[in-house]
Design brief:
single chain, Immunoglobulin-like, 16 helices, disordered N terminus, about 40% helix, about 375 residues, alpha+beta, globular, about 20% strand
Length: about 375
Amino acid sequence: MSDTGTQPLLKDLLGPAALTAIADAGTSASPRFDRTTFLAAASNGIDTLSIMERVRHIAAALVPALPADYPAALDVLRAMAPRLSGGFQAVAITDYVAQQGLADFDASLAALADLTRYGTAEFAIRPFLAADTERTMAAMQRWTANDDEHVRRLASEGCRPRLPWAARVPALKADPTLGAPILEALKADPAVYVRKSVANHLNDIAKDRPDWLLDRLAGWPQDDPATKWIVRHALRTLIKAGDPRALALIGVGHGAEVAVGRFAVEPATVRLGAQIAIAADLASTSAATQPLVIDYRIHYARAGGKTAAKVFKWKALDLAAGETAALSIRQTIRDFSTRRHHPGRHRIELIVNGEAMAETAFDLLPA
């Protein structure tokens, strides 16, 4: 999320209003919730913290506000959760379980399965995976048969090897395929929410064990639309890299019989914060209809004359014999926490079915 004047900072989702909402939920849920103690502890020093630091800070502030008896505290949290707005407010109360519940493993896992319906427990389950991987994974395997899609999603999302913002789990780092039985159980899940998680989990594996992933997905029947969707999205990193096996799994050959009539970017010179427009004209030279996966790769200028490349998805289409296609896309050149721009020449490549077929460029001026 941008920190411009038009949008709040992400961390502000857990600002004063959120603390009041959590306090209100606790007061409504149980007379044993100490509202004053919670607000004092949660407000103290929160301004300097990032969003995930605030999650942990709020969870710690719940400790003196909830009953000292852990099962009783879980009962209060269960009553609080439906009263929250969801999102990070609910994530904060799941982190209480992460911080306080390792000594009562089974009760904690059951609580996370309940609480994830209101705000994902994907971060809170990580300490349990680290402490006892086998026991936690067994519980998550059982969750794959749960009627609630939020619980099924937690089974996949919670054990992603590269889950963003989450603590790494040593066992998953050593073997990122440990979640395979869970993914098998969910490979045709009816819920898009779950399928996205399964695809993201598989894409995580692709970054460390691409051959394992390709072998596994080659054995998945794609006559089910849900499974077919997962396979395509799970392969996105390998497809961007032009991997022939990945392209073949989605029915696309490496390279394409097309002529590029035009590939251009406008304007040719921009400043940070401006938008570029990329356009491409393709014409089929094939005698038959061919599926095309079209991406573009920007080679970002770096200090010292170096570059760093990033591939962006553009479009997938079927191009009939002799047919033409005119494509266009816009992109704003702005800094992110994960990508900082440097002035200089930025090359752009057009990639069709994994093969670079044309090139253009723009220049980024100094700020």
